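Subject: Sanity check before I submit

Could someone independently write out the structure tokens for this chain? I want to compare against mine line by line before I put it in a report. The sequence has 146 residues.
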Amino acid sequence: MSNSNVIQYGAPISLAEAKLVVAAAEREAVSNGLAVIIVVVDSAAQLVLLERIDHTQFGSITVAIAKAETAVRFKRPTKAVEDALAQGGLALRLLTVPNISAIDGGIPLLRDGKIVGAIGVAGMLPSQDAQVAQAGAAVLHGTAAG
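---
Independent answer below. Compare away.
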């Protein structure tokens, strides 16, 4: 039995598709003077592509990877986790979940309505990271998931 309302995982994003996603994200970052790390993982949360724009802090590498992994593993943008935690209360249980990022900038990537991977961006303010991630995600599905 399948729940048609539950988003499904699809075949993993290809390297060619990941390069298109990263190129679009890079254009957005460069046009706005943003030094960021851009990561694409596949539908199994495995790294496909990582790009570091010159002079981006090295610490943002692991943050970008964590954002992408969270978005694909939990089938939602990291902004949803950030917003849930901001509400407090029972949502604070999320703090006990291992390997979850609650910082905006991770977005699932969709092809034909299925999650094929995720993009994670880090290096600037979370809202700026998300702006860059949205530009990359739009390449595959017109608008970002979530």
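---
OP: Matches mine. For the report I'm noting this point. The chain has one domain: 15-141.
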